[in-house]
Design goal:
By secondary structure, the protein is of the alpha+beta class. The protein contains 13 helices and 10 strands.
Length: 339
Amino acid sequence: MIPDRSLEVLRAIVSDYIATREPVGSKSLVERHSFGVSAATIRNDMAFLEDEDLIHAPHTSAGRVPTDKGYRVFVDRLSEVKPISAGERQAIETFMTGSADLDETLGRTVKLLSTLTNQVAMVQYPTLGKASIRHIELIPASDSRILMVLITDSGRIQQHVIELNEKYEEAVIAEVRAKLNALLIGVALNRVDEKTKGFSLTFEPVRRAVVELILQNLLEQVDANRQEKIILAGTSNLVRREEDFPGSISPVLEAIEEQMVLLKLVTEMQAEQHGVSLRIGRENTFEGLTSASVVLSGYENHGTEMAKLGVIGPTRMDYSSNIAAVRAVANYLTKALGN
């Protein structure tokens, strides 16, 4: 158990260190905060916090800075998260309006989150198993070409021109379109291959070559959704905070360049307090991220979590503001997908 005053001292140390990046001493704590006790009493509280491995001295005779454990206690004891400002809310609404498809929406989202937090932002694409077909459109483009448009319930729109190498009857294309939609609307992408077995056999033999070619292209587009990926923005924000990473920033940069590392990370992290998932410093088990903090939140489509978004930055980050921004952007992305 941490005594109440010692906890208040810890909160003050974390807040002051985040704001100034300077080690915090007892004298400055007394000057900046109204504890109503002497500097000697504050030094006793700081000694207790140091014994509990919540703060440490980076240099001899220096003030104290939070440890990973200290940041964790600080975050866990946050009674409320700093709300985003009216200006930030308006910026989110404006920036997220008018996206044409999922790719553009997620691209806007990651740039917005990076701007709001001044951290590296990341957005995970919805995974194959969590998306289903909303509509398939086949549009004649020429005598021997058609445009296939695949729309998923996650909002992703994929377009692909199919070269049939022969003239076709529009009635055949209309029949294929109608049968594919009747068969596949609402079907999860990972079941499309299974559901279309024998599909061409429902057509006259003379038409099956065209049907098979269309089906092959559809399965290729579906397969393109299988590759899980994360998009990033704001790596330069990390570089500008290089002094906040002990030793070298290189391991962090190398870690965030590895898609598999980030994908495994977001899969493991589950929502905790304040509706976000948070790992601080050495709570990250992935090599390269042990000097960083990760804040994540899930975004949804029709009540089902599709994937996650969040930020990566130094442990010396404004947790309250970043948690609020990540949570707000996730909520707005959920609304955008719902629309």
